[in-house]
Amino acid sequence: MTDKCTGCAESQEKARKLQEIIEGYKDTRGALIQVLHEAQELYGYLPLEVQREIAKQMDIPLAEVYGVVSFYTQFSINPKGEYKINVCMGTACYVKGANEILDKFRTRLSIDVGECTDDRKFSLDACRCIGACGLAPVVTINDEVYGKLQPDDVDDILDKYEAK
Amino acid sequence: MNKVNITIDGIKLYVPENYTILEAAKEVNITIPTLCFLKDVNEVGCCRMCIVEVKGAKALQAACVHPVREGMEVYTHTPKVMEARKVNLELILSNHNSMCQTCTRSWMDCELQSLANKLSVENVRFEGEQKKQPLDIGVSIVRDPNKCILCRRCVSACKNIQTVGVIDAVNRGFDTKIAAPFDLALSDTPCVNCGQCINYCPVGALHEKSDIDKVWEAIYDPTKHVLVQTAPAVRVALGEDFEMPIGSPVTGKMVTALRMLGFDKVFDTDTGADLTIMEEGAELIDRIRGGGKLPLITSCSPGWIKFCEHNFPDMLDNLSSCKSPHQMFGAVLKTYYAQKEGIDPKDIVTVSIMPCTAKKFEAARPEMNVDGNPDVDVVLTTRELGKMIYDVGIDFPDLGDSDFDDPFGNASGAGVIFGTTGGVMEAALRTVADILNDSSADNFEYEEVRGLEGIKVATIEIADLKVRAAVAHGLGNARKLMEAIRAGEEFHFVEIMACPGGCINGGGQPLQLSDVRNWIDIREERAKGLYKEDRNTYIRKSHNNPSVKKLYKEFLGMAGGKKSHELLHTHYHKRSNYDD
Q1: Subunit contact B181:A66, Cβ cutoff 8 A
Q2: Catalytic annotation on B566?
Q3: DSSP H stretches of helix in B73-211
Q4: Fold of B212-568
Q5: With an 8 Å Cβ cutoff, are A71 and B170 in contact?
Q6: Alpha-carbon separation of residue A124 from A68, A128, B175, B178 (angstroms)
Q7: pLDDT tens for each residue of B451-486
Q8: pTM surpassing 0.90?
């Protein structure tokens, strides 16, 4: 496993846990998605190295593994930030201008949807309806919910987190 | 097999119960249009071109995968069927890059284009988004995602037939595309350049990296002496680019055409094949007698070699150290021939016409050279040669026959059958048997290694030896065989070719539409052509080829000797899989 801290104890520990996850599903047919979920929980995302290991151990072509990962929005190939920003793109939020909110986050953080800032502080995602349509347009940051947003609110929110 | 009664468009028929509607319809001379379907390769029913009405069924059904059943009533051309097919096709066309004039597929039949004609699509009623995605241009293969219709035939060929699996459908919905993981270039994956994906692509989304321009440049450079050699499988397929029957031997016409194109000399790669047999035969005898690494595994197929380097790096010592025939011949042309003719090797340009896309990668391998001069300068596929002939307006089917040039002349029949699965094995056995028996055998057709079975195993008695031989074609079969060998199954000699059927079905051969491939085994037809050529050849064993004998006498010394090792042998190295 090549990681930023190759050889360091944390990386080895994760690699060992990944082995355990895969071992647990050795004889289960169609277990790829389950393995990917648990691997993502472990690493926070699914980089090439993790997918390659899963492909190798489960004897599934990496292209197929990547095909599955790229199909489901729950899976990410990019790391997530300390603060995970999710902009709801459900119908109600969308008509209430969620796009403009999303754009504001994009420009302010200089990252695109699915990406993470270099300091790993913020990651930005667009998600499906979270069921808070009465608060549209709505954004969640980790477990905090922000409703009835205007694009200008974005600066204040981010300032708050940056100060943390 | 139980049979069932069904009716198709009112015609009653009695067909085996394992038939699909598509197969049943063919029995009564109805060809239902297909696009994603390719028998035994891709049977997923995703393009919805073959939809038909089945009485009692709620929705239209995909004929390519829908099994027949007793009492079934099928209608193949009701207005509902015809309109649905048309709408589906228009939707595919709506975001297809339809610059057909400049498409590589335009001079061959494009399946999408012929379907549009067949369904009389006169205008596309929908306007889709045209994406502009970058091309993936490798040494051997070019992928143009803008032409792709997402039929997944290439995915299946790569994953299921070849067990290489470097491309798949990624993303979802409108963003779906066929790509390598993490959008890597194919050259950064364990792709082996076999080009089977190209053979199965219905459109122009996959093709070889064209090197035609390099050849024209050399031909029209007065300082260059341009030599061309042609692989055995080319001669039974090239005619197909000019609407000749599948598997027609066109050797003589091909030589004439190559001269007309302006090559200085036209040689036969079969001479290289004969040379390979001399070297590989000596290597086999040496390893059996001297207790060397067994089994000896053939090394003529560059797709197979790269596959082995990625997947069986622990078994690279089993590979024959012989270069492939065209590389050997290239090395001979730049040394022996250059000396004999008094030409500076730097002024010689060697061009190989190959049924293969992986040969382009092979020729570019840094170890394939003599004193810094590449053995082979340019590799063209059979299709590219067809294109050159087509471009300059040579009426290929009407050409007369010519012979290959001296000093190498015509090669042996053993060299000819190199182009089909089992051919290298048979050619080697012909020579090894004569050497070990110290006589000339009259019976030298080894039927047990011929044919299209995925893995062929035989025990052949030669002198005091029982030679255990195995032949695999298609990399899925190769993988199975290699795993058996790794697990301890013992053989002396193993032949592996990357492409199903061998070089005759190589990734550089003329394209045959699914409409043909679904009903005729083109490998069988082309192999017949090669065996016919072999039977019509006066010399049928490699060691009897007079120009090869002369080459050893005047230049190389003995097979497996020092000079041979310098020029005709190579080495292999482990390759990573996604930088692991």
Answers
A1: yes
A2: no
A3: 79-94, 111-118, 153-156, 196-200
A4: Rossmann fold (3.40.50)
A5: yes
A6: 21, 14, 20, 26
A7: 999 999 999 999 889 999 999 999 999 999 999 999
A8: yes
